[in-house]
Amino acid sequence: MGLAKEYGFMNEIGLGPRNLGCYVNGVWKGSGPVASSSNPANNQIIAEVVEASTQDYEEGLEACSEAAKVWMQVPAPKRGEIVRQIGDALRGKLHQLGRLVSLEMGKILPEGIGEVQEIIDMCDFSVGLSRQLNGSIIPSERPNHAMMEMWNPLGIVGVITAFNFPCAVLGWNACIALVCGNCVVWKGAPTTPLITVAMTKLVAGVLEKNNLPGAIFTSFCGGAEIGQAIAKDRRIPLVSFTGSSKVGLMVQQTVNERYGKCLLELSGNNAIVVMDDADIQLAVRSVLFAAVGTAGQRCTTCRRLLLHESIYQKVLDQLVDVYKQVTIGNPLEKGTLLGPLHTSDSRKNFEKGIEIIKSQGGKIVTGGSVVESEGNFVQPTIVEISANANVVKEELFAPVLYVMKFQTLKEAIEINNSVPQGLSSSIFTRRPEIIFKWIGPQGSDCGIVNVNIPTNGAEIGGAFGGEKATGGGREAGSDSWKQYMRRSTCTINYGNELPLAQGINFG
């Protein structure tokens, strides 16, 4: 049995009808259950992957622990050169990998290609970083002593990623972890195993070409059992987890019990505030992009729209008009703006969510229904609802936008900050005093605080992540690299000064 004709491009990235799902000690294997990967646009099986068993996991971690001793001694700029080669390998397969992301996850093709481009950009960023892992010299209060900070690798970094960004989140973590001198253990999302295999093959090829141990990058397809093994494993000092707040809390508790470190990227419940002086056209375009993009399955998706009462109806009317023009369909076809939800369960959750919204006084302005088809398509939906409704505090992972009214900036900030999550936020205004209040200590309590741009579309140069139930982790740019290393404060007595000890004769 071969791949279906429309999936022929997958041969170019090393995939077949059945694939081994573990890259362990430089060898492909898999002795766990066989999982099928489905196309969310029609729920047809694309290909199969043999998942990891606990035995595969143990073998992988033993080899990875040995490889860590080698990799951390490779000079950082040479580690950067390996990451540069990974970036070049990705460039060579950008369109095939982007197409696979779109096919298996369900996001539209420009977003699929954009996701792979993000890893390429992370590789470039990390190459530069490999020559800038600088410590610092600190003045010592003692004569003839020097004090400095050294940054050393942790050893192994565990990366557990989610379906909505099945490879970009790996890039945010792995590129930096590798140049910092760590080996990487990756568990991709159970519903996107083909992307996990294809990405790993590309990284494995670079390691092989450079005669480096394959175990530097160890990869598993699998479910919760493998995720729990990573969380419990004392050989993994840092676990980076992306997913729901509920599961993230469980991962954090497990990792904390062994005094490990956690980097959490959890739920978002992001608001856009539109003030009375805002550029309405800019705001409407931005809201559409932020609320409908990736079928509402980004952690940075705009879920709440806060409109000043004086422009409320004007913005809502324009938004309803553009929502009705959204093309829903096959994410691989040109012109499609809204692809399917990722699984049939996601579609059922959308239906349940709409019922809860109605029961809590929400009024459906447009959308609100599933699209009758073989795939997991739903209508982009706008709901008028009170900011106090309980459902507004939760994250419904679908293209559902809650619209609410406010009178003052103070009220808008209070509504923005009233949810458990604290990832991204944005305000549309032209007034400097509002901008600086918004980004200041009494403004938005999120990790990403934007002005006149949407809540999504973060750049890799800044640290990405959020507060409260979003988990507090930071990935990608700025000084996020410090999480992947351990800091040593070193004091050196270069003058051989004797410590003072009055009344004691040392001979």
TrEMBL record:
The alphabetized UniProt keywords are: NAD, Oxidoreductase
Q: Show the active-site residues.
A: E265
Subunit details: Homotetramer.
Q: Which PANTHER family match?
A: ALPHA-AMINOADIPIC SEMIALDEHYDE DEHYDROGENASE (PTHR43521:SF1)
List the catalytic activities from the record. an aldehyde + NAD(+) + H2O = a carboxylate + NADH + 2 H(+)
Q: Which residues form the Aldehyde dehydrogenase domain?
A: 36-488
Q: Is Oxidoreductase one of the keywords UniProt gives this record? A: yes
The scientific name of the source species is Momordica charantia
| Broadest EC class assigned to this enzyme | oxidoreductase
Q: What is this protein called?
A: Aldehyde dehydrogenase family 7 member A1
Q: Which GO terms describe its molecular function?
A: aldehyde dehydrogenase (NAD+) activity
What EC number(s) would the UniProt record show?
1.2.1.3
UniProt family annotation: Belongs to the aldehyde dehydrogenase family.
Please verify whether the record's keywords include Metal-binding.
no
Q: Which stretch is the leader sequence?
A: none
